[in-house]
Amino acid sequence: MKKLNPEKLTVEFSTGVTKTEPVIGRKYTLTHSDITADLFLTIGLQFAFEKITALRDEVLAEWKMSEGFPFLYVYVYVDGVFGPAVTAVRDTIFRRELPLALEAIRYGDRTFFAAHPALESAPIWIHFDSTNPLYNRFENWCTPGDYK
After folding, report:
1. Residue 2 maps to a domain
2. Which residue in 35, 102, 119, 132 has the most C-beta neighbors within 10 A?
């Protein structure tokens, strides 16, 4: 797994969020540059759809509640624009890069996690979205504290 280089991460807070609030409804849009390897994290009340490219290789995440307990729901679009022939390759790439993406979210919003330490142990659930049942999965990927 690649380690996060904090100098390659740019964080932007959208209107309606602060470095510590809100919890539920807090959304993350993580994109990157293939050329520079820079990561761009937008934290807001809405996803930053304007920053998503046609390749659809972004990571979207948001804080939700289930039965009174918070969890981080993460979404990745596995199929992409190139059709089913590329789904297996995209699935492999997402699985390889997701630990770095989760580390970028955890690091980029570290003040939030410091203000809400219980969220360090909240589960992370990832939806790998695909029309192919082999790749359309919903998996637990540990906790934010595992990506410090």
Report:
1. no
2. 102
Domain count of the chain? 1
Q: Is residue 1 part of a domain?
A: no
In a domain? residue 41: yes
- Check if the beta carbon of residue 14 is closer than 8 Å to that of residue 46: yes
Beta strands across the sheet bearing 9-13: 9-13, 39-44, 27-32, 59-66, 69-77, 124-129, 137-140
Q: How far is CA 68 from the centre of its chain?
A: 22
Give pTM, 2 decimals. 0.94
Measured between alpha carbons, how far apart are the two ends of the chain, in Å?
Answer: 13
- Give residue-wise pLDDT tens across range 90-120: 999 999 999 999 999 999 999 999 999 999 9
In a domain, 33, yes or no: yes
Query: For residues 116 and 23, what is the distance between their CA atoms, to the nearest angstrom?
Result: 9
- Cβ atoms of residues 40 and 32 within 8 Å: yes
Residue 39 token pair: 């990561």
Which structural domain range is residue 57 located in?
A: 8-147
In CATH, what number is assigned to the domain containing residue 40?
Answer: 3.40.20
State both tokens at 70: 């918070």
Sign of the CA dihedral with 109 first, then 115, 121, and 122 last: negative
